[in-house]
TrEMBL record:
Gene3D superfamilies: Ribonuclease Inhibitor, Toll/interleukin-1 receptor homology (TIR) domain
Official protein name in the record: TIR domain-containing protein
Source species of the chain: Cherax quadricarinatus (Australian red claw crayfish)
SMART domains in the record: LRR_BAC, LRR_SD22, LRR_TYP, TIR
Its membrane topology: Single-pass membrane protein
A Gene Ontology term for the protein's cellular component: plasma membrane
Segments passing through the bilayer: 711-735
GO biological process, one term: signal transduction
Alphabetic keyword roster: Glycoprotein, Leucine-rich repeat, Membrane, Receptor, Repeat, Signal, Transmembrane, Transmembrane helix
Signal sequence, start to end: 1-19
UniProt-listed Pfam families: LRR_5 (PF13306), LRR_8 (PF13855), TIR (PF01582)
Length: 931
């Protein structure tokens, strides 16, 4: 090891000396701020001398140095130096007193000598004269020098020595008379050597000795006489040796011993009185041995014992009064043993100050198998053997066999700060398990078998402010209703009660839960609104409880039931302020009389499609009802009282697929559906019986033609009177009423040869109304409209955004636009098929054409013709039987203008025969295209 590597290991010694430096100005060396490099930096055999202002002189050698040339520092003088540190230098043929003198220090002033060796100096040995001249030496520390032997008289010249540390130096033996002249010794550290035995009289006459460390050697036995002469010994470290037993009187007379470390030996048993004389001991470490049992009185005399470590042994049982008399015991470690049973009498009592207890990695089960959580807290407290240890702050019970959290944790331990129950068999936690007496507690429940964390009664418990920090990674939580409150708190969605009771899951990023049929999901991302639990309050039905909206979901679908179910809700622990969702899909229900049952007073959602209802009585509905689904029943009409009820409650309705009767009595129902704010989910599926057309598309006139009957009678009488007057008045009267007669002829489809197209449509405002999907707006506005309005002749076009009156009903505006136009152009595309309003416009135009018995409908195919499966039945029939115009056809505009209205003066200019011929050719062309 190079000397530069030794420097970090030596920093502790330098720090102890203060580490303050100042500038050197002596010697024949390369001078730096507070050090000298001799002879210079480039020399491979150089050494460095550093002087610290607080009396520390440090000599550090390069690894190639064998003989140190001290002549380079002949004129240096450091009279205040009291500590000499030698790093990485080989032993010289002169004493360390002479070395100090050659470096400029005064040997008689040196009180501390510290040697840090190097592996390259193996084979060197200290000689008895190496410490000559250091008569004031009090501290001698040696590390990593690999001296296997020590001269028996090496300390004869250092009678004032107080601290000896000979660490990691491969000593395999020490002379019995080594300390004959060092009666002032307080500390001896012979750690990490190869000692196999110690002379019985090694510590004779060391009456001032307080600290002895013999750890990490190969001692298999220690004679009982070894410590007889050290009555003031306070700290004894015998750890990491090969001791298999301890002589009963080994520690006799050590009345001042406060710390005894026997860990990492091979002790299999302890005699009953081995510790009887060390009554002042505070810290006793017996961990990592082979102890299988303890004597009942082994620790009885340790009245001042504060820390006892028995971890990593093979203890399977504790004596009844093992630690009962250890009234000062604060920390007890029994981890990594084989304990299967705890007894309350084994622990300090009646006086106890025990604050930390480690029982981890044993086989301790739940006390007395009190395995059920609910209602057994008093039992758990009575039987839990630690209930008397009321001062406990930290309890470690990890990797045992606990099946629940003992009730004493919540009822006895006022000062409890942390509990480690990780690696146990706990399956369920409820609110009471987490309500500790102390305001803030850390609870480690990692790697259990926890499936349920039920905080559902959080709202009903009275408690003061509480905070619990949980660790839950490695469990098997189930994502159901019982997890709802906990999941919300873990996600930071604190309920109203959360201002008092708070939970923080420190490993929340790694906590998962299992969702039925969906696998595992991180708890942080679980949608708590969907968490449910299966219940069974209703026979023949499946029920779920959803805490998010306090909803009891009763699913009785496909059960062939003839009446609504009766449920025993009160006996299933469901909160009193619950709501009900009832699903009766696909049964044989004919009436809803049972809704008057008190259990349905909180019904909010009634789903009862595909049953046999033919009548609904609104008086049966509870005030809480918000949604009603009666699709697929036998309803033919809704009474006026029921419609008024729906208006008042603003209910969400589904009414489709019923055999509705369409007559004058249906007008109120139709008006009800046309209210824009009405919450009817399926108004397009509400159809008249045996009709494919939606009720929404039928006008009042079509629904109830009898409203027009008086007007028809008046018109007929007026026409008869007109005819009589016409016969009497003759030609003059004829010309006076000419227009009216032609209207009458046209209405009755008589003498149509005498009625020109211009005359029939003379009162119409527009030449064409264009029906299209808003997604085809660019084609209509940039191509179709300009072509019609700027061509020859120029046509007047009706458009939604330009000619409709804002605020009017859309259905009425569609009918008015069709009636006010000579033609209706339908831009048929895939987008048009998806447009509800577009299909309404087509049906209105088609109905007007049938009424007028003239072809007013022109279909323009934009893009590919949609599949027949996507087309409305009437539109599909129209396409198959009528001619249409396709965008992209070379004669598109010629064909379109031909089908548009023809002004009378234009007709006169064209030859009738040529017109008929052209029309025939165009029709043939269209027929081929449609094929």
């Amino acid at each position: 090891m190079s000397s530069c590597r030794l420097l970090p290991a030596f920093l502790l010694w330098v720090w102890a000396a203060g580490g303050t430096t100042y500038t050197l100005s002596c010697g024949k060396c390369e001078t730096h701020a507070n050090s000298m490099i001799c002879p210079e930096s480039a020399n491979q055999e150089r050494y460095t001398v550093t002087l610290f202002q607080d009396g520390v002189l440090q000599l550090q050698c390069e690894k190639s140095v064998k003989l140190i040339n001290f002549a380079l520092m002949e004129d240096c003088s450091f009279p205040t130096v009291s500590q000499l540190d030698v790093l990485g230098c080989p032993l010289q043929s002169v004493s360390f007193g002479e070395i100090a003198l050659k470096l400029g220090a005064r040997p008689e002033n040196i009180t501390s000598l510290k040697l840090l060796g190097d592996a390259q100096h193996l084979g060197q040995s200290l000689q008895h004269w190496h410490l000559h001249g250091l008569s004031s030496l009090q501290i001698f520390h040696v590390r990593n020098h690999h001296f296997t032997k020590l001269p028996h008289n090496i300390f004869d010249a250092t009678p004032k020595l107080k601290s000896l540390r000979f660490v990691t130096s491969n000593l395999d033996a020490v002379p019995e008379t080594l300390f004959s002249y060092t009666v002032e010794l307080r500390e001896i550290d012979l750690s990490s050597n190869s000692l196999t035995h110690l002379p019985v009289n090694l510590f004779r006459n060391l009456t001032k000795l307080t600290n002895v460390s013999l750890q990490n050697n190969a001692l298999s036995e220690i004679r009982s006489e070894l410590f007889l002469s050290v009555p003031f010994l306070e700290n004894l470290d015998l750890s990491s040796n090969l001791l298999t037993s301890i002589q009963e009187n080994l520690f006799n007379g050590l009345k001042n011993l406060t710390s005894l470390n026997l860990q990492r030996n091979k002790l299999e048993q302890l005699s009953g009185d081995v510790f009887s004389d060390i009554t002042a001991v505070k810290n006793l470490n017996l961990s990592s041995n082979l102890l299988k049992d303890l004597g009942s009185k082994t620790f009885d005399n340790l009245k001042n014992l504060e820390i006892l470590d028995l971890g990593n042994n093979r203890l399977s049982d504790l004596p009844d009064t093992a630690f009962k008399k250890c009234k000062s015991l604060k920390k007890l470690y029994l981890n990594h043993n084989e304990l299967t049973l705890l007894k309350s009498t084994s622990f300090p009592y009646p006086k106890t100050v025990l604050t930390d207890l480690d029982l981890g990695h044993n086989k301790i089960p739940s006390p007395n198998n009190v395995g059920s959580l609910h209602g057994l807290y008093s039992s758990a407290e009575s039987y839990f053997p630690l209930s008397r240890q009321t001062e406990l702050k930290n309890i470690i019970l990890n990797d045992n066999k606990f099946q629940y959290i003992p009730g004493s944790f919540n009822t006895v331990f006022l000062k409890l700060e942390s509990v480690d129950l990780s690696g146990n068999l706990i399956q369920e936690i409820d609110l009471h398990s987490l309500l500790f007496l102390r305001e803030s507690v850390k609870l480690n429940l990692k790697n259990n078998d926890i499936k349920i964390i039920d905080l559902s009664y959080l709202w009903s418990v009275q408690y003061s402010k509480k905070f619990v920090e949980l660790s839950l990674e490695g469990n098997y939580l189930e994502c159901n209703c019982m997890l709802y409150q906990f999941a919300r708190m873990a996600q930071g969605k604190t309920p109203k009660e959360g201002d008092l009771f708070k939970i923080r899951v420190e490993d929340i990023d790694n906590v998962t839960c299992k969702i039925p049929e969906r696998g595992t999901q991180k708890l942080l991302t679980v949608d708590t609104r969907l968490l449910v639990c299966k219940q069974d309050p209703c026979s023949n039905c499946t029920s779920y409880w959803r805490p998010h909206d306090e909803m009891l979901i009763i699913d009785c679908s496909y059960k062939d039931l003839k009446d609504l179910p009766t449920c025993d809700i009160d006996n299933y622990g469901i909160r009193k302020d619950y709501f009900i969702t009832l699903n009766m899909r696909n049964n044989s229900i004919t009436h809803l009389d049972k809704l008057q049952d008190p259990m349905y007073s909180r019904l909010v959602n009634l789903t009862i499609p595909n049953n046999k209802l033919s009548f609904i009585n609104e008086s049966y509905f509870p005030e809480s009802l918000k949604a009603l689904d009666v699709r697929g029943n036998n309803l033919t009409a809704l009474p006026e009282s029921l419609l008024e009820f729906f208006n008042i409650t603003d209910m969400n309705l589904s009414l489709g697929n019923n055999p509705w009767m369409c007559s004058c009595d249906t007008i109120d129902f139709l008006n009800f559906l046309h209210v824009p704010s009405r919450k009817v989910n399926d108004f397009n599926d509400i159809r008249c019986k045996d009709e494919a057309e939606s009720l929404m598309t039928i006008s009042e006139n079509s629904l109830c033609p009898f409203f027009m009957q008086p007007m028809v009678i008046i018109t007929i009488v007026a026409i008869l009177i007109f005819l009589i007057l016409f016969a009497v008045l003759g030609t003059v009267s004829f010309y006076k009423y000419k227009q009216g007669i032609k209207v009458w002829l046209f209405t009755h489809h008589m003498c149509l040869w005498a009625v020109t197209e211009d005359e029939m449509d003379a009162d119409k405002k527009y030449d064409a109304f264009i029906s299209y999907s808003h997604k085809d707006e660019e084609f209509v506005n940039k191509v179709l409209v300009p072509g019609l309005e700027s061509g020859d002749p120029k046509y007047r076009v009706c458009l939604h955004y330009r000619d409709w009156i804002p605020g009017e009903y859309i259905q009425n505006q569609i009918l008015q636009s069709v009636e006010a136009s000579r033609r209706t152009l339908v831009v048929l595309s895939s987008n048009f098929i998806e447009s509800v309003w577009g299909q309404l416009e087509f049906k209105a135009a088609h109905s007007q054409a049938l009424q007028d018995r003239t072809n007013r409908l022109i279909v323009i195919v934009y893009g590919e013709i949609p599949p027949e499966s996507e087309l409305d039945d009437k539109l599909q029939l129209y396409i198959s039987m009528k001619t249409y115009v396709k965008w992209g056809d070379a004669k598109f505009w010629e064909k379109l203008r031909y089908f548009m209205p023809h002004p009378q003066d234009l007709i006169k200019k064209r030859h009738r025969k040529r017109r008929d011929t052209d029309k025939l050719e165009l029709c043939k062309s269209d027929s081929k295209l449609s094929v």
